[in-house]
Structures are given as structure tokens and as C-alpha cells.
Amino acid sequence: MKNSILFLKSRFFLKQILGALLVLFLLVVISMQMLAWTTEHGNYIVVPDLSKKDINEVANILAAQSLRFQVIDSANFRSDFPKNAVISQKPLAGSEVKVNKKIYLQLNPSGYANISLPELVQVTKRNATSKLQAVGLIVEKVTYIDALGKNMVYGIKYNNKLINPGFKLPKMSGIELICGNGNRPENETPNLNQLLQNKK
User: Fold this and answer.
1) Could you write out the three-class secondary structure of 166-184?
2) Pick the CATH number of 45-107 from 3.30.10.20, 3.40.50.10860, 2.40.10.270, 3.40.50.620
3) What b/e sequence results for 85-116 when a residue is b if at least 16 CB atoms lie within 10 Å of its CB, and e otherwise?
4) Whole-structure pTM over 0.90, yes or no?
5) Alpha-carbon distance 50 to 74, whole Å?
6) Buried-most residue among 5, 47, 65, 123 (CB within 10 A)?
């Protein structure tokens, strides 16, 4: 028992304890370094908010932070965002990513896409309005002419010109519907241009 106590107090034992602690400390440090190396721990970058920024500004911001980007298919035009500006991004702003991570961007187009005018002649004003709203067009004005079909569409005008089904015009454009008022026209077989001329 006495010999055991003397051994515990000996320098040799203390050196062994210190050596073991040193080895343990080194193992912990090496393990943490290896973990940092394999996972790039500590090299994360916070993704900036790119919303409403144009693509040139985005390129400069991401390059300065060692991040890359790729533009995916542009969304439908949004009037509340500048043209060619970022509408959405992935990963989201505030996310932590590794160096050289690619950020996927969706841009606002430079303008509305063109829409084909649907077939509206001989359709009621109510149904025509619903069809136009469904494709992104706006009924800006309704003009009534002498024609027996009350509230029946007889023609469509855009920029004061008669247009036919299939005509391409920008989404959100305002158009004019030419509808009948239910009255018999003076000429039994008038054409639309004549009716519009009489309206003036």
C-alpha cells in the first residue's frame, strides 16, 4: 500500500499522466482539424438578398463572395419588379452555403409575353370577358352597335383597329369589345365597319 502511494507521488507517474493528457489533447485537435477540412467547417457564406437587383449587380455581389449563379427559366412578367431583376432565388437569402456554391435565380422578363386573341365573335360579353381574363387580357371598353344580338360580341378592337382571332398582343393589354345593343340595324346585312362608322 505504501509503495503504491509512493508510486502515485513519483515524477515518473506524473510524467505519464501529463503525457497521456497531451496525447489526448493532440488527438482532439487533430480530429477537429480533420472535421473542418472534410466539411469545410467555418467556411460557410451567408447568401445575400438578391431580390429586385438586376443581373449585372447580382454578378458583382456573388463574385465578391465567391459564389456562382445560374439563371433558370424566367417567370411571367411582374409589374411590381424591375425588368430583368431577380424575382426569386434558391437557396433563399440568409441561408448558409459553402464557397463556390451555385445560386439559382429566376428573373423578371423585360416585358409581358404575347398572347393569342381567342375566338370571341358570337360569344356573349360575359363569356368573352371571362375568356380574356383567363389568358391575361383586359376589357378596357365596350362599344354598342345596332345589332339584334344583345350583348353579343361582333368584333374586337386593339389600339383602335379591328383584330381577328389569333392576333398576337402583349399580356395585360386593354381591348375593346364591339357588342350588339339588341336594336335592328337599318341595313339588314351591314358589315362591322359600317356599323362602327354609323356609331361615330
Assistant:
1) CCEEECCCEEEEEEECCCC
2) 3.30.10.20
3) bbbebeeeeeeebeeebebebebbeeebeebe
4) no
5) 15
6) 47
Per DSSP, what are the bridge partners of residue 161? 158
Q: Domain extents for the chain?
A: 45-107, 114-199
180: cell is 350588339
Which residue(s) pair with 194 in the sheet? none
Q: Are 45-107 and 114-199 the same fold in CATH?
A: yes
Instruction: Report whether 87 contacts 72 (CB < 8 A).
Output: no
Q: What does the pLDDT look like over 146-186, one tens digit per residue?
A: 998 999 999 999 999 999 999 999 888 999 999 999 998 87
